[in-house]
Write a structure and sequence with these properties.
Helix content: 10-25%
Distance between the termini: 180 Å
Structural class: alpha+beta
Number of helices: 9
Shape: elongated
Number of domains: 6
Largest sheet: 4 strands, mixed
Length: 499
């Protein structure tokens, strides 16, 4: 049976799959089974096929999910700055272990208190930029910091902190901090807070040493009975009490008698007081105490005896200077202290004009504070009462004054010459007065001047004038036993110093 090409119609041999005339493929396409048909052909094939497609589909979904999550996360991170609330919190303690007080506030910088604040709000631009994502420029950084430290109309920060316990704090206490903030306000500025509740353990609170402000404090009572005075004695107290505590008398501390009650109030006056816990730091110690406490003291030990004194028994009298210019002196160096404090000695003649043989009346009179005398004009001093006769007098004859010597102020001086310059073969000199031969006690009281001091030649005459030096008088010179002669000027002829 002949075969024909179904495309060109020409005869072809049996079994040929391609037409030799038109070159077209004469074999029919094999029947392709669908995926479902393949699955129906074998149960095993169906299971494997479904499993493979499920795994592939699951993988695709997983990849899509991960990519979506990463994209969302990146968008979220880029859109918001997340801050741990703990990093914004400043926790402060005052007081001592067991009695401390704690507070928590937004950790903003405070130049007056030398507080740098947290890094997020640091005034150091570089420090703050490193905390924020993207290292924001100064303008954006300022906006972010302003949003964190924003205040309400009442001056309170929008970010605040509350504590589970604030008073009576001890080492080892666990305190919970809760951060309150305006979530929408911060999100609007690209900021989110996390870990807004956290705990911390209290540690390093100092232990206070209990002390009575009157430990080692006593009162000294001086004077006589009925006229005594009270003084606080801190000799046996610790340095803290001596330095930082003030003791004040709250009733009369004078005119005391044995048995009277004196009241003293002790008050802290230092600069390190924590009034909440009634404690204060001093050096390396912390002292806890009751402040503004008052204590009663009973007066005792006031002397009942009165001692009569003769004011001339304690003083040595002498005269110094020269005849006609004598000085009266009262030496009380060996007298009891109250003599120097309360009494004065005067004479009835002009002091500084005395001469040998004069009889002077010396008067010893009270010259102190009226408060030191009682109604009987008795002196109350150092736990003792003294009675004395007011305005005691004694006559003394002047003696021992030097005889006056008339003194020539030019006799013992000399001129000192020094080479000044040489001109035309002539030597010129400088001149000054040498007072080295004058008596030492008056040399400084005299002043000399020259008519010429420079450009002086041999043979020239130089005039020297003398006067009393500034700060002295002729009486001062007379007091040394010298009277200046009336001569106030003298001339000297210049001689070659080598002759």
């Amino acid at each position: 049976m002949k075969r024909y090409c179904k495309y060109c119609g020409r005869a072809i041999k049996e079994g040929q799959r391609r037409c030799p005339h038109c070159s077209r493929n004469l074999s029919p396409k094999p029947h392709q089974l669908s995926f479902v048909q393949k699955c129906q052909r074998s149960g095993i094939l169906i299971k494997n096929a479904i499993s493979q497609h499920s795994i592939l589909f699951s993988c695709v979904l997983a990849v899509v999910f991960i990519m979506t999550f990463v994209v969302c996360l990146m968008v979220n991170l880029l859109a918001y700055q997340t801050i741990n609330a703990k990093e914004l919190c400043r926790i402060s303690f005052i007081g001592v272990n067991g009695e401390a007080k704690v507070s928590a506030i937004l950790d903003v910088p405070d130049e007056e208190k030398n507080i740098s604040g947290c890094d997020w709000l640091s005034t150091d631009e570089e420090t703050a930029q490193m905390k924020f994502i993207g290292n924001p420029n100064p303008k954006k950084l300022s906006r972010l910091q302003h949003a964190i430290s924003k205040e309400d109309f009442d001056g309170k920060y929008k970010i605040s902190f509350s504590l589970s316990k604030t008073v009576g704090i001890s080492n080892g206490d666990v305190i919970t901090v809760t951060c309150a903030y305006d979530k929408d306000y911060l999100k609007a500025h690209g900021i989110k807070l996390k870990d807004t509740t956290f705990d911390f353990v209290v540690e390093n609170l100092p232990d206070a040493q209990q002390i009575d402000l009157f430990d080692g404090i006593s009162l000294d009572f001086i004077g006589s009975n009925g006229y005594g005075e009270a003084y606080v004695n801190t000799d046996n107290a610790i340095d803290f009490l001596k330095s930082d505590v003030t003791y004040t008398f709250t009733n009369d501390r004078t005119s005391l008698s044995n048995g009277n009650i004196v009241m003293v109030t002790a008050s802290y006056s230092g600069n390190n007081m924590d009034f909440y816990s009634s404690s204060a730091k001093f050096g390396n110690e912390v002292y806890s105490f009751e402040n503004n406490v008052t204590k009663k003291f009973r007066v005792k030990g006031l002397n009942l005896d009165v001692q009569d004194i003769d004011l001339f028994d304690y003083v040595n009298f002498s005269f110094s200077g020269s005849e006609g210019y004598g000085q009266f002196n009262a030496d009380t160096s060996n007298a009891p202290e109250f003599v120097d404090l309360y009494f004065i000695y005067t004479i009835d003649k002009e002091n500084g004009r005395l001469k040998n043989g004069d009889v002077v009346t010396v008067t010893a009179s009270y010259n102190g504070s009226a408060g030191a005398l009682n109604s009987k004009k008795q002196l109350v001093y150092n736990n003792q009462k003294y009675s004395f006769k007011d305005a005691q007098t004694k006559e003394i004859t002047v003696s021992g004054l030097k005889k006056m010597t008339v003194f020539d102020p030019f006799k013992d001086i000399s001129l000192v010459l020094q080479n000044d310059y040489k001109k035309g073969g002539v030597q010129y000199y400088k001149a000054s007065v040498d007072k080295g031969n004058l008596p030492e006690n008056i040399a400084g009281m005299l002043s000399y001047s020259l008519s010429d001091t420079e450009g002086i030649r041999e043979g020239d005459r130089v005039t020297v004038k003398v006067s009393v030096a500034v700060g002295y008088t002729t009486e001062d010179i007379a007091g040394q036993g010298y009277i200046l002669s009336g001569k106030t000027m003298a001339s000297f002829t210049i001689k070659n110093p080598e002759d």
